[in-house]
Specification:
Layout (H helix, E strand, L loop, with lengths): L25 E2 L3 H27 L3 H28 L1 E4 L3 E6 L5 E6 L3 E7 L2 H6 L1 E8 L6 E7 H17 L6
Antiparallel strand pairs: 1-2, 2-3, 3-4, 5-6, 6-7
């Protein structure tokens, strides 16, 4: 049986079947911009250093143009992309689902009903530890992969993990 939208209705009448994709409301912590800048600066710094070292030995005009272009891209990435990413990256956790929106060029909107959540993990790399940030990963029974909320304040991430763990334990379903 098909409805007018061309979608086969589910026989499951659990609340998770009624979860809809919608814009999440919460932003990540403002220090996430610094974290993203530092990550990019490390990568671009290595590339620029390598380009300059090569220029010391091979002084070709085309190579100078490549290093200058890389420097321009580096400045643009360090100045503009963290701001755009911060403006776009949103998340929200309700009693029914977790919503995540991310991406600058390609926007990724995801919703994970709590009945589909299998694990909730926290990750803190060295820069994140230094800045007091965490990444929360919500693994689901979906082949589309995990939902990641980057740049949460450490305490907010711990609270979110506790809340999601309690909510998924209380949600009927087998997360498959």
């Amino acid at each position: 049986m098909r409805n007018t939208a061309g979608v086969t209705p589910s026989t499951d009448t659990a609340p998770a079947a009624r979860v809809r994709l919608r814009p999440p409301t919460n932003q990540v912590h403002p220090r996430a911009k610094t974290w993203w800048r530092l990550q990019s600066a490390a990568v671009y710094g290595v590339l620029l250093l390598a380009g300059i070292v090569v220029l010391l030995f091979v002084q070709e005009t085309w190579l100078v143009a490549i290093v200058v272009a890389l420097a321009v891209i580096t400045v643009a990435d360090l100045v503009f992309l963290p701001r755009l990413r911060y403006a776009r990256h949103r998340w929200e956790a309700t009693d029914q689902a977790v919503y995540v929106r991310d991406g600058v060029v390609v926007e990724d909107w995801r919703v994970a009903p709590l009945s589909r959540v299998q694990t909730v993990d926290t990750e803190r790399g060295p820069l994140q530890q230094w800045l007091g940030l965490s990444t929360v990963t919500i693994t689901t029974a979906s082949t589309a992969g995990s939902l990641k909320i980057h740049g949460l304040e450490k305490e907010a991430a711990a609270d979110l993990v506790d809340r999601l763990t309690a909510a998924t334990e209380a949600t009927p379903g087998d997360a498959t």
